[in-house]
Amino acid sequence: MKATAAPSDATLTVDASCRAAGRTSADPRGRKPLTWKKRSTPWIYMAPAMIVLLLMTVAPAIFIFYSAFRNDKILGGVGKFVGLDNFIEAVTNASVQHAFLITFGFVAVAVILEMILGFALALPLAAQTRVNKVGAALMLLPFAVTPAVAAMVFKQLLNPNYGWVGYYLGVFGFPKGIDLLGDPTSAWIVLVILDMWQWTPFIALILMAGLQSLPGEPREAAMVDGATPWQMFRHITFPAMVPFIAIAAVLRTIQAFKTFDSFKILTGGGPGESTEIINLGIFRVGLQSFNVGLACALGVVFLIILSLLIPFMLRIIGRRADPEEM
Amino acid sequence: MIRSLDRVKRSRIVAGLGAALTVTLLATACTGGSLAPSTAAAKPTELRMLYTTDEANSAAVASLVPQFKEKFGIDLKIDNQPYDALQQKVFSEFASSSSYYDIVVVDTPWAPALVQNLEPLSQYIQNDALNPGSPQSNVGDFIPKVFYDTAVYNADSPIKRYPDPTAKPDVSAIKNAGFDVYGMPIQSNVAVMAYRSDLFNDPTQKANFKAKYGKDLAVPKTWDDYAQVAGFFTQPDKKLYGTTVMAGVGDWATDDFKTLLASYGGDGTLADESGKPAFNTPEGTQALDYYAKLAQSGHVPPGSTSADWGTTAESFGSGLTAMTINYHDLKLADNVKGGTIGYAPVPIGKAAGPHFGTWMLSVNKNSKNKEWAYQAISWLTAAEQQTTMTAKSLHPSRASVFAGIKSDNPLAPFYDTLGKSLAVGVGRARLTNYTEVSHEVAVAVNNAATGASSPSDALKSASDKVSALLKSAGY
Questions:
Q1: In chain A, which residues have their Cβ closer than 8 Å to the Cβ of B439?
Q2: What is the extent of the structural domain holding A150?
Q3: Which of A119, A297, B160, B430 is the most exposed place for a label (fewest CB within 10 A)?
Q4: What does the mean pLDDT of chain A come to?
Q5: Is residue A304 part of a domain?
């Protein structure tokens, strides 16, 4: 017993010395405990990225929170703490409420349609044939175009007097010189189509990678058992793809909330205020009127809503990824 | 004991520094934030200027850079930025009290917010040594309305306007009235009408017009005639429409409305000097009603309710319309065979009030080369240089430049119209949040033009929103 008690005391002694040195326990495999220098090495490697992150993201974010409670003027004059005034103005203004509402509407419609179309594209393109490789490369082209440039090209195509879109719609019996950007409904359709044209390849790319990574055995077994293509999709492919769908949906949703260029160039928020998404409002208030406090408050409200929405989305989609829930 | 002595010493040093700082600040305050201009200021090797692109004819200004170097022995480095980027750059430069740019171009909607960051120029203008050969920079030569609307401000109350905007500019009078000069106008934009003179002079068109309306076809001078002539020329099957409207949501729609509002006898600036909206009036309703009817008449090209000034210029340039209202001289595309352009002031109602807005060159209050920056802007906006720049289509701001344009100048008709229009132009309200106000008015104009709202409802809604905006801006 004494022979066994002695090592135990020794262990306790080592633990105490480890704690004194800032460590929690001795290495169980008998290696030398890491020195402070060695432990700090990863932090040194990470430091440049962390410094950039702090300076470019964390610090501005803190400043935005700070500014949202003040009425600072960008040019001269000393601002003061105004409590929740900016937030009250941000959430009670009817135009702002409308802007938030249509922003969510746009994101929901665009992302759902892009997910469906992206999946439909990914399914045939997932098989790694030469034709599919060329097809996938071509499909990525819209994704590579700068959104502002895409919007400018669309605007020319939509010109009711000499644009191709109006001309071909006329061929199909639509009225001549149709002004698609002059009517709220058609303006929305155009904006969603532009977004789909540009971003569906992004979704398809993620889902294609997911489809290519799925094991073939369950499908082969199902085929042997006489399952139809729909049954295989419904019970094997789709459930296995849910984690990829979740990633694509979340990434695309975050991107869609940042949409700005296409609305600014194509409609400028019009007709009336029908396409005035919140980003256009924040741009105008913050970078044209330089009402920094209100713009920051709008940004913070937007951030809070997104911070609640994204985990909610992940929870819903993640739950669906659980086979027990299917 | 030693510690407490140290503390006493430290507090005395801090107090001393505070006092020195206070004295310095007071001294600076006494000179309005600037020391008196010195003629012996060190000559820099380079002056930096922040300028726009096409909006204020950057090519014209750039063409003078070699002459500037020859005259002053200083390199003039011009940084050109498109409109939105320029606005953000200008504001961020001043927000950070940067001295990088010595000269900054300022558009009129920004001036009320920026004026306290611009160097007041009266003491420079009145310093003979800084104005060799051109006493007081010959400011009396500037078109009065342009000069007062663009450059004359009371920095403590930017919303105020100089009481007599038709008086010959005089710096002493401006100072005595509590104002100062904050820049030199360089590019004067104003709404002018362009029309296809080949169509107006076509004997067949003249005969058809006479047969239809019982009077001679002439360039319209009233809004009623304008609508009638627009209707006459409209032949959609031949891809020809009467005129254009810039009814897309943007500053251009507000400008169109401003012109009509002033013309119908309303306050074309949109807000009065007490910071109250001034467009939801009978004159405003009349003006917007006319505009909405024109937009919905079929006498403007499809897409006019989402058009901006660039779109309307393209429409006219491609031969799609017989008339247009824009801020620049226009060109017809090669496919418009035999097409020629004439210019005329925009039609009038009870009064003339074309929308105008002029860009000015100002000296950065934080510049280390203010004296030289002043001499640079004074030289660039002098009559001789403006005359040279008319070869590149600059819109001059001096009366003598307009008077000196020769009849063989291909743009002589345009300049003649421009000069006449500037003399009666109506500027914008001097509000620090004019962009937001303009947006709400543009939304109202667009809603009325598309028929989404009646003109009176659209104006009432815009007026309520503008009232709230002005209140939140402290007016």
A1: 284
A2: 86-325
A3: B160
A4: 86
A5: yes
